[in-house]
């Protein structure tokens, strides 16, 4: 029988219960170990997410302790000082002070047993202080590290820091993307980690799966009768999944040039969204049932055609001294993916991502086919579209043709709109990392990437990536602040997308 935890939210008289893994009673204390604790990812994302979980009562001071581990030789207070400014908008509150006291720091290398022996000793001392029965405690290792050190760190954890799991305890690892650079390197990394940890212990995190509107996709598709008969090739002409940034690499040119926009954004973030948009209804909400359906989508993908790919590189990208002068790395890509199955045959899935563009947004745009027998002659105004705005200003809206108010029978495009800031006033939308870390503690792998899913994703993109790496496919220069190369708009048009002219979505004001 599952253990039910009663959690009292700070500042509230309301209690909230939640369940962890349905099969294992959670009784031991919880240790969260942030590896790479002195780095930017840990300071800007991991520790703030842990603080917000603590502030909301999901992490209790009487059961959790947080350990930072890195090569940098600093003290507990030094690490706390580095983190403090990223918590609660930099305000020093009692909650911030209480949270920082839960953090202990251990210094050591990533390939030597000495440091991990000290880390295990510190964790064990905490577990003993909480009167935790040996084998019942929980250890969560968060890899805020480059993938190059994953294998050595996994070996060290396996050799020195594992918790005995015979009494309900566990050891889990959370690994950040990128998971390799192509199919071969990804499979090698998966094999190295897989030799040491079982799949249920491995959580491959993609923070886009924790975003509120992405989490809403399955509910929208499978809990609303409205969409069930429309969500297919008979009614949908094309689907766009778009990621745009209005800034360049901003000091990360050397890192970005190693991967490029396809590896950095499309192969993981946007492809994960595509799977949720295109998948069939799973048997249940169980994580494995959902991930099974996502894998089926990936396995149904046709090879990407070169003529359905447009790459770009913004002018000035190579001015960064950390970027090679002959770099062929794309900072922009538009491509068409096609799914060979009964539901989606013939429907282009247009993936578009770029840096240094004219706007910042991430959205899903489902464009429906033209109305047959258009008696109002209004097709020139645009098609029906269902748009899900992931960021910024989370929203969902349906573009419809309606009668223009007045005595004349004229038509205009408007929208049915659900804007989160307006509809859910006072509701704080959690950060993606908060949700995903909590899922890891609960043992829910629904929003994490499974090994066969990762392999199928790399199989789709590796041939194209190798052609880019070999210089066989060249990016087209484009001006910063533009829409990207004009050839990308031509590709959209050739794929069947009809742009609406004269319509602008205006975010509602309170």
Automatic annotation (TrEMBL):
GO terms for cellular component: cytosol. It comes from the Eukaryota. Gene3D superfamilies: Dihydrodipicolinate Reductase, domain 2, NAD(P)-binding Rossmann-like Domain. One of its GO terms (molecular function) is NADP binding. InterPro entries: G6P_DH, G6P_DH_AS, G6P_DH_C, G6P_DH_NAD-bd, NAD(P)-bd_dom_sf. Its EC number is 1.1.1.49. Its main location: cytoplasm. It catalyses: D-glucose 6-phosphate + NADP(+) = 6-phospho-D-glucono-1,5-lactone + NADPH + H(+). It is found in: Cytoplasm. Pathway: Carbohydrate degradation; pentose phosphate pathway; D-ribulose 5-phosphate from D-glucose 6-phosphate (oxidative stage): step 1/3. GO terms for biological process: glucose metabolic process; pentose-phosphate shunt, oxidative branch. Residues 33-216 form the Glucose-6-phosphate dehydrogenase NAD-binding domain. It is an enzyme of class 1 (oxidoreductase). NCBIfam families: zwf. PANTHER family: GLUCOSE-6-PHOSPHATE 1-DEHYDROGENASE (PTHR23429:SF0), GLUCOSE-6-PHOSPHATE 1-DEHYDROGENASE G6PD (PTHR23429). Catalyzes the rate-limiting step of the oxidative pentose-phosphate pathway, which represents a route for the dissimilation of carbohydrates besides glycolysis. This is Glucose-6-phosphate 1-dehydrogenase. The lineage of its organism: Eukaryota, Viridiplantae, Streptophyta, Embryophyta, Tracheophyta.
């Amino acid at each position: 029988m599952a253990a039910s935890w009663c959690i009292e939210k700070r500042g509230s008289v309301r209690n909230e219960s939640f369940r962890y893994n349905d099969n294992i009673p959670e009784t031991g204390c919880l240790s969260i170990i942030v590896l790479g604790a002195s780095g930017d990812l840990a300071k800007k994302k991991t520790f703030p997410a842990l603080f917000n979980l603590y502030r909301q009562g999901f992490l209790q001071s009487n059961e959790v302790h947080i350990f930072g581990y890195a090569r940098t030789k600093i003290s507990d207070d030094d690490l706390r000082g580095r983190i403090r400014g990223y918590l609660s908008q930099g305000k020093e509150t009692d909650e911030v002070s209480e949270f920082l006291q839960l953090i202990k720091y251990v210094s050591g290398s990533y390939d030597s047993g000495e440091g991990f022996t000290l880390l295990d000793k510190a964790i064990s001392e905490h577990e003993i202080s909480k009167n935790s029965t040996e084998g019942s405690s929980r250890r969560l290792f968060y890899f805020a590290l480059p993938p190059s050190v994953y294998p050595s760190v996994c070996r060290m954890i396996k050799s020195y820091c594992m918790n005995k799991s015979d009494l309900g305890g566990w050891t889990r690892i959370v690994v950040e993307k990128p998971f390799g650079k192509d199919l071969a390197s990804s499979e090698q990394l998966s094999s190295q980690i897989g030799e040491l940890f079982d799949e249920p212990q491995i959580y491959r995190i993609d923070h886009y799966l924790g975003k509120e509107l992405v989490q809403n996709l399955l509910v929208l598709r499978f809990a609303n009768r409205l969409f069930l008969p429309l969500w297919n090739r008979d009614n949908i002409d094309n689907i766009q999944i778009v990621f745009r940034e209005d800034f360049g690499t901003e000091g990360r040119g050397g890192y970005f040039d190693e991967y490029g926009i396809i590896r950095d954004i499309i192969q993981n973030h946007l492809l994960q969204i595509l799977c949720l948009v295109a998948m069939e209804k799973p048997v249940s909400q169980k994580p494995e049932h959902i991930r099974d359906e996502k894998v089926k989508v990936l396995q149904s993908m046709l090879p990407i055609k070169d003529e359905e790919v447009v790459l770009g590189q913004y002018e000035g990208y190579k001015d960064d001294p950390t970027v090679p002068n002959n770099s062929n790395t794309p900072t922009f890509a538009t491509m068409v993916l096609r799914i060979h199955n009964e539901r989606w045959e013939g429907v282009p899935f247009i993936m578009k991502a770029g840096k240094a563009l004219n706007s910042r947004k991430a959205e899903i745009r489902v464009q429906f086919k033209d109305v047959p027998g258009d008696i109002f002659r209004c097709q020139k105004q645009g098609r029906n579209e269902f748009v899900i705005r992931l960021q910024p200003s989370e929203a969902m809206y349906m573009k419809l043709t309606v009668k223009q108010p007045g005595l004349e029978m004229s038509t205009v495009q408007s929208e049915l709109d659900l804007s989160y800031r307006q509809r859910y006033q006072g509701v704080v939308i959690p950060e993606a990392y908060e949700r995903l870390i909590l899922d890891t503690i609960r043992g829910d792998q629904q929003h994490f990437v499974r090994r066969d899913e990762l392999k199928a994703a790399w199989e789709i993109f590796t041939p194209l990536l190798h052609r880019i790496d070999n210089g066989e496919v060249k990016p087209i220069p484009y001006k910063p602040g533009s829409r990207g190369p004009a050839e990308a708009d031509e590709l959209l048009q050739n794929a069947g997308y009809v742009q609406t002219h004269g319509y602008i979505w205006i975010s509602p004001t309170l």
